[in-house]
Amino acid sequence: MKSFSRRTFLQVAGVSAAAVGFGGVLSACAGGSNAGSGSAASGEHASQVTVSMPVSSEPDAGFDPFVSWGCGEHVHEPLIQSTLLTTKADMGFENDLATAYSCSDDGLTWTFTIRTDAKFTNGKPVTAHDVAYTINGVANNEASECDLTMVDKAVAVDDETCEIHLNKPFNALLYTLAVIGIVPDGGHNADYGSNPVGSGRYMLEQWDRGQQVILKANPDYYGEAPKIERVVVVFMEEDASLAAARSGQVDVAFTTATFADQQPKGYDLLNCASVDSRGISLPTIAPGATKKQTGEEYPAGNAVTQDLALRRAINYGVKRQTLIDNVLNGYGQIAYSVGDNMPWSSEAMKCEENLARAKALLDEAGWVAGADGVRAKDGVTAAFDLYYASSDSVRQAIAMEFANQMNELGIKVTPKGASWDDIYQHQFSDPVVWGWGSNSPIEVYNLNYSTGNGNYSCYENAAVDAHLNAALANPVVADSYDEWKLAMWDGENGPAPQGDATWVWFANVDHLYFVAEGLKVAEQKPHPHGHGWSIVNNVDKWSW
Question: Into which family does the record put it (predicted)?
């Protein structure tokens, strides 16, 4: 994948865009050195926007819902394809391709009625057969990053009715269906990612791998016609994104807390709230165990973090706001769990900073400070390694700040930067700085269920599992929220800080963008993990 440093971007920005592979797009929307005078300055470009995203936002497999487009780690509305449902800002549901849906009393069959006025860009109408084909295709594709293991099969009863049969009640499926783009029955092949056929608001006009994607409005879209008719997405590193804004080459430029104070002339800073959480897993079991993940077996357990008092002390002793101020320059919100401020989040996860209480917990549990200030108990020193992705400067800074704060408790933390391949060897045996966050309660399940695929703390609690199962079994999603909350703390059981303290959470990272003056970005839903496509979920409603 080709990326642009600030130096190389400045070198190419002033020459012919065609010569550097931008197809004339960036030079066409540049309105001079005064940032913000790009698309808005010229009537011919008043319905176009150019948006920069991190290079990691470019989908390796293309615009293919069978693999990772719209789903996986970075969930977003797929734009090119329609979805059965969409989510609102309050995480309620709205119909899209579906006009109605219902669930059987046993929670095992979801029935969707499909609209009759939608058609694919190849001219064929969208039917329930296409929906069933897509759901089955995603569920059976080993390369898919979308978890549909709860789906037994999807069946088209007729052209307008599709049934999705589950092998267990799982109402969070609705959130997944809000990001799975529907493709034509039999229309998926090895080349689909580069030549996608959909029925969504936009069509793929051009894809220059490693550089840019151009989307154009679908003239046959069944919904309201997009106000923005052309969307250009350029993939850049952080410094190149800033340089592109300074030279007026982009209308929306992603940025981070590191660059937020360098706001270019003619741009406003857009601060999008997120559920993009940063936290550390704390293995709860003794070393010597193993856990399986995707068919492989890994060492599990940690001699230090297996101690309950120590895990609780970490949660009470960490200074979350200080971390946000020092690492994120204030661009973040304190987080106590994954998915804070969502309808399913629990107030019981909140943990007041109390250094005295943290030290008292350690004292009472027999963790005694040595001459070097580091505590020990029964021959075990309160010291552990903390892994973080070496390519992520924010996670590195979080690890360093956390280590400094733990010194005050007499806990020695050694940050270790590594590649993800190396980190996964330690995922169940050592604390890791993770990034999570989704517009769905599914991550609450994955991180806390005994067999959840994100249960890095190796936590098993039958009462918690029962609450999570009960939440998923409710055929009315809104009625399941109380069970999600009880799964965090029901007064006796749960991963909350006053309970089993299986994680320590720090912050939800604000997603920051420089936006050209004159461009009205529509109201944003909370952004999930991944600083990229979520910003353009509703780009069709933007305007100059």
Answer: Belongs to the bacterial solute-binding protein 5 family.
